[in-house]
What does this fold into?
Amino acid sequence: MKICRMKIKTLSERLKMLRMEKQMTQKELAQATGLSQSAIAYWENGQRIPNVLAVIALAKFFHAIDYLIGFKDK
It folds into this structure.
């Protein structure tokens, strides 16, 4: 049986995509969510993983919890 393998986007890729769709800088997103710009940069680069409270803040801002954490593809 052949299994189709597709690339699954990570939280970091999804976060960056959502931010860019809104044409926001990391600094603007940080100000809008109360998170730090440096943390957003680390998350987008895949260097760190956001904690649950940060994911909730981002999901609320983008109205996209299922997409952000990978349950849906938009």
About this structure: Residues 1-8 have pLDDT under 50 and may be disordered. Residues 11-21 form the longest helix (11 residues).
